[in-house]
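Example record

Each entry pairs one chain with its bound ligand, flavin mononucleotide.
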Amino acid sequence: MTPRPLLFLAPMAGVTNTVFRRLCKGFGADVLTTEFVSAEGILHRNERTKRYLEFHPEERPLGVQLFGANPAHLAEAARAVIDWVNPDFIDLNLGCPVNKVVCKNGGSSLLRDCPLLASVAGTVVKAAGDVPVTAKIRIGWDAHSVNAVEVSRILEAEGIRRIAVHGRTKAQGYSGPADWAVIGEVAKSVSVPVIGNGDISSAAIALQRLQETRVAGLMIGRAAMHHPWIFSEIRQVLAGMPCPEPPALEQQWELIFLHCAKEIEWWGGREDLAMRSMRARLMAYTRGMPGGPRLREQLQRVESLDQVREIAGR
Ligand SMILES: Cc1cc2nc3c(=O)[nH]c(=O)nc-3n(C[C@H](O)[C@H](O)[C@H](O)COP(=O)(O)O)c2cc1C
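Structure tokens for the complex follow.
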């Protein structure tokens, strides 16, 4: 029997901390990854970096995603992470389009330099020993240099065990539709599992992508910020059942309150800091709710959970 395709929560900086990851796990996400963590930050024992590495045993299997460009530093960082937190896998970020990362040759910049990419992958794989190393790529640097198939073959040859492909080029950022034809090509070209990523916003789209390509799993990012129950919807549809109705408004607010409460706990009771960090999450949750614009205007200033309850009228 073919195994059920795995559902991954996409790593998202500033979003996928331990609290949000556990929430998505509760809805049926199979595999979680930390947001990207700087290899240099790890080597400097940076305090904020350590916080990015926090996770709860119930999150396993969990990967720590690293970015950087220096193979030796990345390898040392991978070793340090394995010693500190013993993740189930190390994930290499080979797709980040952010200038701060790209100008130091990290993230998607490595897609333009296949020899360096091979060196990064091979060195980290050796350093990680028994801990599997996976990678997350974009389909290329720009429309003239779409090279995801070539890059994936190199990664496979260097011992990378699974490849997530975001179907956009670096130049696209987050605009334009994700190119699932290229994702499908990659899935046909390598024997390691390929995870498709980009624009999966409903169970119907998830099913369609699985029918069109030979991917071993799907990775979901922005849709999970807006409706984290998408994982349970996809699971139900994959099991041959009809897509369930979305949670009623009342349940959606209960979820929001729970997320806020857990975030406050994670911040050690510093409610003001926790709620400031929740503001962007609240903006995403209230998209599509009745009275959304008015709600968001009020929620962008919240400092306490009581204020959220008051704004919600509950
Ligand atoms: C706010 C935000 C932060 C992100 N941070 C990361 C990151 O840390 N590492 C990474 O590999 N991708 C990151 N991404 C990209 C996502 O993992 C994913 O590839 C992209 O959003 C496309 O998937 P989607 O259409 O399901 O959102 C980020 C995306 C967003 C929107």
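The CA atoms of residues 135 and 285 lie 29 Å apart.
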